Amino acid sequence: MTKNGSIYEDFMEALGVRYDSRFVISEGKRNNSLFGNSHEIKRILNMLNMNKHDRLFFKRIVREISDNHTNLKGETMFSAEETRQFMEKYREGNRKLMQEYFGKDEDLFDMDFSKNKKWVLDNTEMEQDIISLIGRVTVQLRQENRELQTQIQDMKKELAECKKKLDAKPSGGRNPLRSVLSGLKGKK
């Protein structure tokens, strides 16, 4: 049972932050892990100056490549020791969170990283993943291009029909003001 009627408000209170109307609770989003060379590909892509839509485009494709490497789920970007050193920086705060929010005197995260296997660049696999990335990007862009070409053809047909209708009108598609002025000049 929540203390203040909202798990979000209770959580913010446990962190020492006053919850108010400025907080907007968005839909939950899964933060799926990347596997294999996808980490490195994504890291390099992140260095490019891309807009939000381009980042999302590549994120989706890198995710597809990663999903093909489920056999590498045990690999991490840090060694066991690097992970331990990183997590130690936040251990005290995480324990405080467990105590205040869950009433438990224990670590928030499992601190045994002995099973971590550090990712190592395998040029053969990386080459295949880069070819896969280029292939997937090309297929996606070609599909979008075909759809846009179809839209352009539809618009051209619609424009031609509009021109026919306009030409069929008495003014013949000319500026109506000029038509009136021409008519007046002809009567003199």
Structure in words:
By secondary structure, the chain is mainly α. The chain has a domain at 34-162. It contains 6 helices and 2 strands. It has helices spanning 7-14, 38-46, 52-67, 80-102, 123-168, 176-187; strands at residues 75-76, 117-118. Strands 1-2 form a two-stranded parallel ribbon. Strand 1 (75-76), helix 4 and strand 2 (117-118) form a beta-alpha-beta unit. Helix 2 (38-46) packs antiparallel against helix 3 (52-67) and helix 3 (52-67) crosses helix 5 (123-168). The model has no long low-confidence stretch (mean pLDDT 82).
Quick description:
The protein has 188 residues and is mostly helical. Helix content is 61%, strand content 2%.
Characteristic key phrases:
2 strands, mainly alpha, two-stranded parallel ribbon, 188 residues
- Percentage of residues in helical conformation: 55-70%
**Gap between N and C termini:** 93 Å
Count, helices: 6
Overall pLDDT metric: 82
Large-scale geometry: elongated
Strand order of the largest sheet: 1-2
Major beta-sheet overview: 2 strands, parallel
Low-confidence stretches: none
Radius of gyration in whole Å, from Cα? 31 Å
